[in-house]
Amino acid sequence: RKEVEQDPGPFNVPEGATVAFNCTYSNSASQSFFWYRQDCRKEPKLLMSVYSSGNEDGRFTAQLNRASQYISLLIRDSKLSDSATYLCVVNSPGTASKLTFGTGTRLQVTL
Amino acid sequence: DTGVSQNPRHKITKRGQNVTFRCDPISEHNRLYWYRQTLGQGPEFLTYFQNEAQLEKSRLLSDRFSAERPKGSFSTLEIQRTEQGDSAMYLCASSSRDTPYEQYFGPGTRLTVT
Fold this sequence. Notes:
- The complex is a heterodimer.
- Chain A is mainly β.
- Chain A has strands at about 5, 10-15, 20-25, 35-40, 45-50, 55, 60-65, 70-75, 85-90, 100, 105-110.
- In chain B, the strands form two sheets. In chain B, strands 2, 4, 5, 6, 9, 10 and 11 form a seven-stranded mixed β-sheet that branches. A four-stranded antiparallel β-sheet of chain B has the order 1-3-8-7, with no helix packed on it.
- In chain B, strand 4 and strand 5 form a beta hairpin.
- Chain B is globular, with a radius of gyration of 13 Å.
């Protein structure tokens, strides 16, 4: 089983739609969770951290369910500029600061 | 520009040759990471430095790979006797002591081994 699993997509949605991505992780001892965004042929960039209570940043909402080892990202009112690959990222317990990345979910927002 | 920089941006080499990549992290960051990314995959951790000390190495890092960060600032990643399977994007990232998981990535070096 992969340490971090994501649906690779692509998700094709019209502008203005709401879209949700899911991710599961295998190590129950993981404590830190993130979503990174990666544009085509660019480097990954931190989008947001994911907290146990859930957190929101503008149109983006992240949720964590520790019992199910499940992380989600909700994007409301999708923009063309949201088109990218969204990487689910989890820390590797027992390591100083190693991150484990999922394969990413590709989002394409269309007119 | 105060972000992470990497050189070269692209490298084409013949199988069997040695290559070296350089990473300059954000100046106030004491942690530096190397990752490898292939098409359709997320970045895979290779190694990590805290200041000049190399504290972790992935099993992915065979003995043909070596990384250094001699003065705790820039880092180099060398691949000896390159193989076609080494073709990938090599990403460098850095982070501060206070927020080690908030890693800032450089633009990467794309290696093609022919």
